[in-house]
## 1
Amino acid sequence: MLLSVLVGSGAQIFLMSGVTLCNVRHSWFLSPSSRGALSTVTIIFYISLEVRFPRFILLNFILIGAQSSAAVPFTTMLALIALWFLISTPLTIVGAYFGFKQPTIENPVKTNQIPRQVPTQPAYLNPFISAAMGGILPFGAIFIELYFIMNSIWFHQIYYVFGFLFLVFCILVITCSEVAVLMCYFHLCAEDWRWGWRSFMTAGCSGVYIFLHSAVYYFRKLHVDNTASMFLYFGWSLVMSALFVVLTGSVGYLSCLVFVRSIFASIKVD
């Protein structure tokens, strides 16, 4: 159940990211220099695709406590809550209704009711080691672009290259798919059938590297002299990394699901 919830949330984030980047790249009304319009469109897509934001409210309370001008006003917070209850919640109910009416996904071949014993695995197929190896490749695909994005966020620079960002996003999706499928293939060759969570962790571990990169960026680039700013920085970095884990992990799992179903569907049983 937890895996299905994470994959569903990752699909929502994937759609929101793709639609937002397409709008920024091709829409005349959404200028990259207008952060307010970009933030508004992003929030609308988040709400429309039913992505929760309790962490945003918690971090906003920290801004209010620090008497920061960046804190969201109370009326705006009420508007966001209204969007949550009037748009997001009904969409969740509608999606659940149609989801439960869909037929259950069936395996292409018959499976044993008793799980098969997994033999001793090589060291590199350890869940943590394979996730660490697989996660570094998607992180490497976005490392340069991540540096410019963080400069834009924390040093108030204007970010214009959304076309290149969309290309990097496509490269990220392809890299996550290939890495997850490759490691899944290694697990299946070693007679390890537990590929579900492994595929999610392999691609999703890139979010851990993003959080580690954020910590290095904090100590090397930023000069923060108060505790509230430090909590805000690491709080938003944790949110960004967690969303990235869900996004890339979902891409990895769905890619492996298609891969496993394809190879087992080709098996001929007499």
## 2
Amino acid sequence: MATSSYVNFGHTSGKSPQIHWDRDFKHKIPVYRNLGLLSAVFAFSVGLTIGIFIPLMYYNVNAKNTTSQNYHQTTSASLIRTIFLNNSYGYVNNTKPPPVSFVESPGSFTDNEYVEEGIYWAKKVEKNLPEGYKDQKHLIWSDYIRKAVAVRLESGCGRMQNRLVTFEDGLKGCVRYRQNTDQIQGELFSFYLAQILQLPNLAPSAVSIVDLTSPLWTNLHNEIASAQWNSNRPIVVTQFISNLNSANIPAIFKPLEKHLNKFDVMNMTKNPLLDKNDLLKNLVELAQWSDLIIFDYLTANLDRIVNNLYNYQWNVNIMEAPAHNLARKADSQLLVFLDNESGLLHGYRLLKKYEIYHSILLDNLCVFRRKTANVIKKLKSKGNIGTLLRDMFERRNGASVKDILPTLPDKSVKILNERIDRVHAQIIKCQSMFAKT
């Protein structure tokens, strides 16, 4: 059976079929050896490809993500610049028509009852500005806080550890408490700067110390503990203002308009939808906005209009929302500039990121209050803003405050002087473009 079995495999010679099988197997060894070599080469190639391809893929993904982030940052800035273009300058070069076509030629516009010398709000507008808070009111409040006795401390006046304080005569104040001293400095020195600029839009404020032995706080040990205030910390106490409403960004500063110059004022005067009372009311608001734009540029305030501009790239409706930390008194049209703690210190540290947003409105502003422009020119000429702010701090505060709260740093004074120069340059540029057209 065995022999016939081998015969069935086709072996016909006289030799043993086993010998034939060994010979055939040995003949096929090179083939199997080549197949093994090929398999090894193939496996090595696949491994090498995977080893190179996966890191490259990871690198490309990260590179694309990084590029995408950089592109997003670049295009965001470009987008903002495009949307809030310096269209004010287009009028002079006749490169753009007025956004509202109530007039035929911007070159035909001369000064009227609302604009003087091409760049200043006229006396009619100035005369109708609300009185607001001037020097005497600030001094009265500072003196009051030195003698006041608080009887109640409760949540209110914004976020975190701020508190609404009630004094024994019923008057109220908002107390700003922060862990970071530079935010208290920012609030206080922004307030002093507003007084130097003669802006009546900031409520009276005074700096004090959390001292449980002082008459101001002696009745409030439990409330202060509940608020988690630490002793010997500086605080800013601001007069509480009632009857405040939210304030929106005027249409003229939104993306469809973008600028304010004398031709924009002219268009408003020709608008048949506005009667004289509404027109004057709008111009009084814009005159306060011209001060706000300068003030926020000088202080590099992050918590007001810059907040809306920065978020516009993600939410185009945000310009319709009320402006942060800005309110309007219901009974007087006064715009109140609230919460200025990011000014002069924190905002200055973030200029690299936010300067584009700080510049947008200033670059498109070409109507100013004459008084504000004159103060800017004087500060530019004398270069003494640091001295003025520090002298005010020294005069108005006792040793206990000055031992705890530092004065404005030299670096902040330097940046503030540079920004005063920038505002002054903007006024001069507007004068050259609009005073004679």
## 3
Amino acid sequence: MLNLDALQAIAAARLNENMGKPLYESYCFSQIPQLVRYLLTEDTQAGLPLTVLEGLPQQYEKVILILVDGFGWCFFERYRDRLPFLKHLFEAGVASKLTTQFPSTTSAHVTTLHTGLPVGESGVYEWFYYEPLVDGIFAPLLFSLAGDRTRETLLQTGLQPEAVFPTQTLYQGLAARGVKSYCFQHQSYAHSPFSQTVCNGAEMVAFRTLPEAMTNLAEAAIAQSGKAYYCFYIDVIDAIAHKYSPNSPQFDAEVCALWLLLEQLLHQSLAGKLHNTLLLITADHGQIEVSPENTIYLNQLSPSIEPWLQRNAQSKPLVPAGGSRDMFLYIQAEFLEKAYDLLTQQLAGRATVYYTQTLVEAGYFGPDPSLRLRERLGNLVILPHQHELVWWYEKDRFEEHHKGHHGGLCRDEMETLLLALPYV
């Protein structure tokens, strides 16, 4: 069934096609960890409105949550009548639209999913941002500086992941309530500094292929006695949309293949073998088709901006931060108003420029953003309009090549989903 209350709440929060608003206190991705606590423990708060479980039991022995990176609400609507498993989820379970947090990025959302902390508390909000402890632009998921060609370069400096990532996790809390947790991630990052820190308390299950992972998850769910939570992260949809665009035949083929695998290996293979178990499927964001060749590079559009940027102790400008759908700028205070006025004029019709403090006060980072987040945020935010990109150019270091992207507040990137279906 379709959750009509969620549709109405999110529609009412939209300002225009380029600007929606995260509903942190109700239908938002940030409430999913609390829903998991509610389903598996005696916690009385569900986080999300109970319409996401309309007609379903509300307590379970096991919960399987699948995060399909990039498969936002727009793709659910595109494929739900075409793919049998999606159609079954829609007809036999509950389909709810959710908002993402802001920014609509993987960094923010996987951190929330593992720690239970919304972006305003976790402080991990984008692919690149200024990190005071390294006095530079940091790539948190890679644990390196922006522009580094290899992962984990900051390990060589002695920086400990616990110093820059949250150490409180959802899995620690579940373990204290007698729930065993498992995280399924691709082997290329399953044991990264980021994953080791934010997944603390769960058993990490690294995999090479999706059929392997789904088979291992199914076997584990059948064999496990007692309460258990399985969190399975799938990145192939997001990756293929970035490379080819979300309207490409390659994307279509990847979506069809993935949902067929899910149907066969995590639905049909478990039918009748699991009881008192709920399947949840969600996404961290959607995607918008873009043309990288039309990217607006700020240092080419407006060279006068560079002298206005804040610099670190080595006199390097703090740029670029955020992403090309939500670019954050660190402007020296005396030039802030001048930069806002200039960029507003130059980007008119293609992007909107905001003082970051305006968005903070309006609740776009949640009700009470932490000092950690505030120290990492730039003081200007550029939000490109539909299909537009704004970034910074350095050949072979910072260039835009994506044909699908996300990070901003347009409908297709910041409206996501939660599908709920019990195993019977």
